[in-house]
Design goal:
By secondary structure, this protein is α+β, with helices and mostly antiparallel strands. Helix content is about 40%, strand content about 40%. It has 3 helices and 5 strands; from the N terminus they run H-H-E-E-H-E-E-E. Strands 3-4-5 form a 3-stranded antiparallel sheet, with helices on one face. It is globular, with a radius of gyration of 21 Å. The relative contact order is 0.13.
Length: about 140
């Protein structure tokens, strides 16, 4: 009876540990992806187009009220910094969605804005970014 109880306890402990590991891993993935997304916004905020482009991969797709554009170069070119002053952003309600072991989608609400040619523009929108792991 004691041996059976010990086996049951060992089995339950192993199941608990296995269940806890994916959650911890998922939390690490979520934090990493949110950090990458924040880095993209920080580069946008500082008008670092080269750095901004380095964090975007093909096939980049940007969908706005003006339509759909694709490609990293095109996405970066739409970011007009001429005549614009200080920028700001805030990410809210960030959620990481696992699609497969190698694909995640980050969704969030973004408030961002800038002053261009003396006129303030503030946007409040929902955003999503798809992340795909390549290699090991």
């Amino acid at each position: 009876m004691i041996a059976r109880s010990l086996k049951l306890m060992a089995g339950l402990t192993a199941l608990f540990m296995m269940a806890a590991m994916p959650k911890a891993y998922a939390e690490d993935v979520a934090k990493s992806l949110e950090m990458l997304e924040s880095q993209t916004w920080e580069r946008w905020k500082t008008k670092n187009k080269t750095g901004y482009a380095e964090l975007i991969a093909e096939p980049a797709v940007r969908i706005t009220a003006d339509g759909v554009s694709s490609g990293v170069a095109n996405t970066v070119s739409l970011d007009n910094v001429e005549g614009c002053g200080e920028r700001h952003y805030k990410m809210q309600k960030v959620v990481t969605h696992k699609v497969t072991d190698d694909v995640y989608i980050l969704t969030y609400r973004a408030e961002f804005g800038e002053t261009c040619d003396g006129k303030a523009a503030v946007y409040d929108t929902y955003m999503s970014s798809t992340f795909r792991k390549d290699g090991d």
